[in-house]
Amino acid sequence: MAGLIIILVILAILVMWIVGIYNGLVGMRNQVRNAWAQIDVQLKRRRDLIPNLVEVVKDYMSYEQETLTKVIEARAMAIGAQGVKATGEAENMLTGALKSLFAVMENYPNLKANENVGKLQEELTSTENKIAFARQYYNDSVMRMNNKTEMFPSNIIAGMFQFQREEYYPVPEEDKEPVKVNLR
After folding, report:
1. From CA 54, how far away is CA 73, in angstroms rounded?
2. Which of 22, 37, 98, 157 has a CA positioned 20 to 30 A from the CA of residue 69?
3. What pTM was estimated for this model as a whole?
């Protein structure tokens, strides 16, 4: 009788251990999904601001239609992207197109002085900062999830219940380059 009780206690502990790991994995998976949703909210906000910016600047920048076209095309690609990697790459292209637009805008004093343009630039800059923070939170969540799915003994439970590695949000290539400082 005592042997049966010991076996039942060991089985109960084993089941609770498996349930605990499983619930932890589910919680981490949901955290990754929530973090992605936060990125998606900020990306949508940025995509919604871009047509307003293009509309305001296009009259001033009649000679810069190629730059505006690149921004519009990059936005369309970003809207159509599916999955973490494709979305990250498309959004990084959009970021590059916006940087080019802002650089060209510097050549137009009337445009720089326009109040609407200033507000839109401020909104986009704020949104870019929010995207960076959301991306960092997402990648941190992915790291925790991937660690849990790969480390022993939780990797056994993750494999049994088909938990998968998550993809990191890619960093733009230009952000990987060291910053060059010229003090001359």
Report:
1. 12
2. 37
3. 0.83
Residue 178, pLDDT score: 57
d(CA 80, CA 87): 8
Within the chain, residue ranges assigned H as helices are 2-58, 65-80, 84-105, 109-113, 115-150, 154-160, 173-176
Domains and CATH numbers, the chain: 25-168 (1.20.1440.20)
Token output for 88 = 């990250």
Q: What is the largest CA-CA distance in the chain?
A: 91
Range with the poorest average pLDDT among 4-8, 122-126, 174-178? 174-178
53-to-7, 60, 99, 103, 108 alpha-carbon distances in Å = 69, 12, 13, 14, 15
12: Cβ contacts below 8 Å, ≥ 6 apart: none
Separation between Cα atoms, residue 76 and residue 96, nearest integer Å = 14
Taking the mean position of all CA atoms in its chain, how far away is CA 115?
Answer: 30
Cis preceding-peptide flag for 170 (omega within 30 of 0): no
> Cα 11 to chain center, whole Å?
42
Of 46, 165, 167, 9, whose CA–CA distance to 54 is shortest?
A: 46
